[in-house]
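Minutes, methods subgroup
Present: GH (chair), OT, SY

1. OT presented the first of two proteins processed in the latest run. Sequence and structure tokens recorded below as shown on screen.
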Amino acid sequence: MPLQSLSLDKQALNEVAAEYGFGKIGSASGAVPQWGGRRYLLEVSKTRYDLHVRSLEDEFDLRRELDLLTFLDKHNYPSPRPCTDRRGRPFIERDGNYLVLYKVPAGKPVAEDDLTLRQVNHMGHLLGELHMLGRGYKKAIDNRFGFDRIFETYAAARRRMPPYFKKVVRTLDEETEYLGNYLETKLPKGVIHGAIHTQSISFKGEAVVCLGDLDAACRGKYVFDLATAVNALCFDDGSYSLDRFEALMAGYESLRTLSLAEWDSFPNELRFAALRFVIIRLHEFFEGEANETDRINEDFRRYLDRLRVLRREKDGGMDGLLMAMATGYDYRKYQRVKSGDIESAES
């Protein structure tokens, strides 16, 4: 059963809050923009909660996500904390959907153009922490967004693309064929976030206080998670930023060093990470039931721009990035980058 349309006004949100034993919600509560009735903010006594609307058919994946979040919470990892209602239920059913409530720390996303090197560095460290911590999580989590699944999703979306998408189709056809032959599968794997983007990260000052949206978390390649983070955090004003890339890698490699095979695979993982976001956004666009104006998602074009840079179809800082990856075998280069060096680069 697909996700049903659900609009929760203030009265409905107060009713949900009551099911969790909360008092009256604050004035800041309401729908989160650009989420189309799938996400709501609840403010209760200066405490923030995220309310997510999920399809009934997502129950298995939802329970798996909540189990992982509970594990991370026990280890004090800065991720959303699942809440249970007054009857101990991890989610409640409402109008053909599941409602899931998470407690989140006070913080806010930062637009990609406004990120500082220290913020990017901290995110790299936090991603490394997730990968290391995930080694203690023994339950299997299937990867729902591997190449085969993305190829199937693209095939379904491709059939619905209008003729004026022919240039997009040509690019995506070429890219799926290329990556089908050159993606490396025998690389270090473990628990990964799976879909890092700027809106999933909440900052308070220079520090990351919450890494959210772990519904795509799974067992996958660590370098793919890094590639997704690079595409999200290191692309600035139409170009990849070498300073941001080095700041991200310095934070990450302070906890976990990449293997030679991972460095070799990095360029293709960047391409797949960008391709995946393009295809998922296109799928959402063509499968959506809202009118066309409401369904336009800027992430589709934003990540298509990244893919074209990565394919060397347009300028965008790839020479510096590829050189950094080629010299990334010198791990000490990144391990020597300290906070003071990042501060100097920003001044």
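2. SY then presented the second protein from the same run.
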Amino acid sequence: MSRHDNRQPGQIRPITIEKSIAPHAQGSVLISFGNTKVICAAMIEESVPRWMKEQNVPGGWITAEYSMLPYSTLTRKQRDSSRGRPDGRGTEIQRLIGRSLRAVVDLKKLGQRTLWVDCDVLQADGGTRTAAITGASLAVELAGRWLVEQGKIKELPVKNRVAAVSVGIVAGEVLVDLDYLEDKDAEVDMNVVMTDKLDYVEVQGSGEESVFSASQLEKLTSAAKSGIEQLLAIQKSALG
């Protein structure tokens, strides 16, 4: 099957990473997965959430916020603030980003501080959550390096990098890194998050149009692993 943008089934979209896009953040990147563009910025707050203080939990915390800017989609997307309630999808995605980052950061080494990670979608063309996780991993690492450079902590609190990619079955074929046109027609849709040791952090999969077999699941996770290996190499070259 030929994909509409002439990619091979296992080929990710062109990825670009621009560092230090938000000057006031301690770590930031603009990451593009093809036409999906997300700004990921990490800022440090010198305190921890109240529940951590009350329960005497040692170390720090990472929390993520995700939003799609009004002009990120073809028709204007209303802001949560003007709707008066948070978007359920956005809430689910920011929890996924937070879990993915906490899985690879040593919170004790972070010390008694909170790392706020904001992921704002500038342009959406499928895979916004996977781009956000892949970019947020770099923003957090840059913020960790800043803490070390400032003498606030002794060593980088980041244990591993983390990256994520979407995979799906479209017209019976397993495809990696689906854009919007592919995603809307997918029979099976999955998001896979892995560390740079290729351990799974999270797998979110559902049969959108149909059920899927154990052998299809194996093909999907294998394709995701290959896509994530490509992303990890790009992350490495971006941060050195």
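Chair's summary of item 2: The radius of gyration is 18 Å.
Next meeting: continue with the remaining queue.
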